[in-house]
Amino acid sequence: MSDLTQLGVRAIRDGVAGGEFSAREVAEACNAAVAEAGALNAFIVTTPERALEAADRADSARSAGETLGPLAGVPIGMKDLFATRGVQTTAASHILEGFVPQYESTVSQRLWDAGAGMLGKLNLDQFAMGSSNETSYFGNVSSPWRRAGSNAALAPGGSSGGSSAAIAARLCPAATGTDTGGSIRQPAAITGICGIKPTYGRCSRWGIVAFASSLDQAGAMARSVEDCAIMLEAMAGFDPKDSTSIDMPVPGWTKALDASLAGKRVGIPREYRMDGTDAAIVASWDQGIAWLKDAGAEIVDISLPHTNYALPAYYIIAPAEASSNLARYDGVRYGLRDLPAGANLQDMYAATRAAGFGEEVKRRVLIGTYVLSAGYYDAYYTQAMKVRTLVARDFIDAWARCDVILAPSTPNAAFALGEKLADPLAMYLNDVFSVPASLAGLPAMSVPAGLDEAGLPLGLQLIGQPFDEQGVLDAALAIEQRAGFTAKPERWW
Amino acid sequence: MSVDRAIVAKIAALARIRMDEAAFERMVPELNQILEWVEQLAEVDVTGIEPMSAVIPQPLRLRDDVIDADPLTGGGVRDAVLANAPAAEHGFFGVPKVIE
């Protein structure tokens, strides 16, 4: 039998349904791949028994002739930001170490209901704050990729870095991610996989550890556009427990996939031609334009004039919301408690949060507290929220001229672990192409476009109109078909 | 605008994060670097622009005004609520003495 870990979501599901192999065989193969990949540090905890239980359910359902769910027999990785009943959920922080949720997040529950099984909880940047997976309390994740002729460990991107590494290394066919400012698209791009963030509100935020609630959105990561569509269809849907959940039916994105772009207009934002972008990224963008033209699309020049201000606005808004959301970690109701001798309640709060939060989390909580404090609120926070209106308005104006936007996903290929860690600002700049769509709540996706000179993957980003995940997926499919991306990391772990 | 040690000490107190001297020495220049960079927002003309209030505009919903409309988020789950508490005592969250 061929190596089952090489198969994607659709191939596994159809193979199980068709009896080519059992779900248990798939789960065992993936469990073994996960167990052998300790060097990647992609998982915080592994749950092989959960994967086997779901597989056995799929196999018995098939024997009994029952209708199988759309993900029956598919083992997946779960970003450790989703609350999973009975399985430790940490957001990669010390302050939540040992926290065992008594409830299941809506998105993960929907995936289990669709038949998926859980291989484990995937590592991430602490509280999803980071672009390299180096802020995790549980250690760095290594990308399975390496530069040609080098053994230097590379970052898998972040914050969904455990997800991207695990999928690229063939530990799992798909995983969940969350995207606040690019945390699905950036890691997907630099590890040569696909990742989609849907329109804000498509996926319920209930049970996802909150970072910046007006930006956080769950999404799907996998090795093909179609696999992402299958995953996202299972994850999305109205949830009355999330006040920003969209009460709209989830379209059949997978079935409607169509790579023919005749009659579609693809916008190329001129402000995304930025100084400091790698030449290889610019070349891949030009190649992407040619591919979409070949798929029948009309290419139009568009302007998103406030692009340069999106990132600084984001680094006020996201920390502001984080400082509020993370106020809940107080050493009283769950998680870590640090109670120095003789400490009063206030001392306990301060000691607990000092011990429980990592440096980047503290930095953002402090920035957020500052920009929301009396005397500074209008100058920083209100101004940033006005700029956010302008960034969103840029896109609304663009939709008069185009149906979907093509841009790079990242300004560079994967960087080495440690390379940007000393300079928070350099790390923030990695999100320059992904943050504008996040501020506007738009669906956006990264799809592999090719390799650079060092043999590292580069991604292209598609940005769509609100609720038009289909347009994003279709354009991504057109690129996927033309890019013919089959490269995979050589196994060293 | 830049922050000095006194301002960072004030916001650290507001944020309930204890910081030692080494942390201040590290954090003050880092925060100033970030604040200096976000200053560029001041140059954007926002005359007549409303701050964004909803990413995807939609009316806010109200749930049915009944007890335990959703049993999961309703009451009667004390043990589950306390299950992860670092110091649960007699069915309550335990904290250091707050009355002198």
Architecture of one domain in chain A, according to CATH? Alpha-Beta Complex
Largest interface: A-B, 74 and 55 residues
| Gap from first CA to last CA of chain A | 23 Å
The residue ranges of chain A in which pLDDT falls below 50 over 5 or more consecutive positions are: none
Please tell me the overall pLDDT of chain A: 97
Major sheet summary line of chain A: 8 strands, mixed
Total beta-strand segments of chain A? 11
H/E topology pattern of chain A: HHEHEHEHEHEEHHEHEHHHHEHHEEH
How would you classify the helix and strand content of chain B by structural class? mainly alpha
**Main beta sheet of chain B: strand number and arrangement?**
2 strands, antiparallel
What is the subunit organization of this protein?
heterodimer
- Determine the mean pLDDT of chain B: 92
- Distinct helical segment count of chain A: 16
- Mind telling me the C-alpha Rg of chain A? 21 Å
Q: Assess the beta-strand content of chain A as a share of residues.
A: 5-15%
In DSSP terms (H or I, runs of 4 or more residues), the helix count of chain B works out at 3
Tally of DSSP β-strands of chain B? 2
Query: How would the global form of chain A be characterised?
Result: globular
